[in-house]
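# nightly structure sweep
# worker-07 picked up a monomer target from the shared queue
# config: single-sequence mode, recycle default, output format = structure tokens
# input follows
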Amino acid sequence: MNMVQAYEEQAAKLLPRSVYDYFAGGADDETTLAANRTAFAKYALRPRVLVNVSEVDSRVHLFGDDLAYPVLLAPTAFQRLAHRDGELASARAAAALHSVMVASTLSTHSVEEIAATGARLWFQLYVFRDRGITEELVRRAEAAGCRALVLTTSVPVQGNRERDAHNQFRLPAGTEMANFRGMRQATFPTTADGGSGLMAFINAEFDPTLTWEALDWLRSITSLPVLLKGIMHPGDARLAVEHGVDGVIVSNHGGRQLDAADATLNTLPDVAAAVAGRVPVLVDGGIRRGTDVVKALLLGARAVLIGRPYLWGLAVEGQAGVEQVLRTLRDETRRTLALMGAPSLAALEPDQIVVR
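# output follows
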């Protein structure tokens, strides 16, 4: 059985139903959630043979860092709901396995606490109606030593996450959005209709008027590299580069926003072609195997990000579970490269992937 699938099955038994549904669920009928995974089956790999693969180099260079393999931890909110150590366990695992963690704005440990683990961090950012909150978060991320900012563009309003509404999703007592201590209320508001507290928070706080001006503003207040997360159209990829972005992340927010949106793997080649090598392209959504990682690289990604897979490891075994997920994907990626006849990422050839 796929190791990630095994962790998810165990997590489903361990976690309260509302928490499991929050992590596992998507928007509306969850067709995009499913499509992110099934898209990988549409592509087949074509290996080369008689190549010396006694040593395989899976390193990738991103924003001043040489990473041992092209897998990063995507920003995921409220990790203390999965395990008491939350983001601290995930960050320690990223440090131990020489990866990068993208810390969420909506984390249950502050960016300062996460940074104290010694992990290499990027900071995921939302733009709030109150720009002062956003700017303060940027300053704190810089001071904490974060190496890049990841501006999430796919949540002008929250998608219709019916599982959360049905469960009246809330943060339990003793759990808070730690980055907001002293800045604003660090828990969700109470909703009159008894629906999702997270939806009420997002609709009250996130700026739905967001335009490309916000990217220009963000670049004016920081010298950190800025990546745009949520790019799903090649036109937006071109605009991102024109506005001076340092990287783009092809993402449909794990199928949690617009249902019926295309799978990220399907969108990736068009975005990569639009960017034309001017900035790195990363992708998330549906990655469960090393073969998935290599398929994404062949379709134009420099690296991938995982979300749910490491949350299931976190829920079951804490830091050790996250480490096991990263270790497995690292080893599977290297094995896939060897079997593809590619002793390095650069040795992969575009014609080594085809539509079935």
